[in-house]
Specification:
The protein is of the alpha+beta class and 243 residues long. It has one domain. The chain has seven helices and eight strands. The protein has a six-stranded antiparallel beta sheet. It has a two-stranded parallel ribbon with strand order 7-8. The chain is elongated.
Amino acid sequence: MNINTNSYTYIFAIAMVIIVASLLSIAATSLKPFQDKNIELEKKSDILSSIGVVGEDPELLFNEYITDQLVIQDGKVVSSEITAFDIDMAAAVKESNNTRKVPLFKAKKNGNTFYVIPMRGTGLWGPIWGYVSLKGDGNTILGASFDHEKETPGLGAEISTPIFQDQFPDKVLFSETRDGIEVRKGDAYGSQQVDGISGGTITSVGVQTMLEDCLIPYKEFLLNLSVDEIEMPADSILSVVLN
């Protein structure tokens, strides 16, 4: 074959495209199980970090600390064809509040019960997400972690840093005046407000909106937790017994 002809050039280019595409397809197929496993471990690590558990083996720690995985719909525990861990929050938040099925992770640490709520919302440039862990009363925040896809570095991206997240512990989600946490412009006070990121107002408000929206399916369940799920100080328990 004459390698100096146009037809040879076209055939060679087509053959190379086919070969490269085939190799990429084979690589993607063979690597997908490893990618899926990494995503699973990252998710487990994020859930654990919201209750202050960090380690080199998220799989082992997840099985140790997460005692139950519940599927919640309209404030009640329901049966589901998929597990709580496998629920796609990006798809779930697009459904109406009363039909939305959402995951709730129950954890035990140092004898105390905690609940972990996954969240999904929208920032300035794309999706934001996070995990909020609650103490046994189902209302007081133990910890919070947030992340993003492409928020502006140094501005909205700061929601994933301790300077923002460390404001959430001991805040409360539900009160007579509001559900969720209000993000303020540097004048936060009280039990339901945090300061937003300077220069990242839209992303900060996105976190507030995400909290408000994602809490709706959980509210009834959390507010009706039985008394035996709520950790009480030893002196309080003794007082109840004596009285």
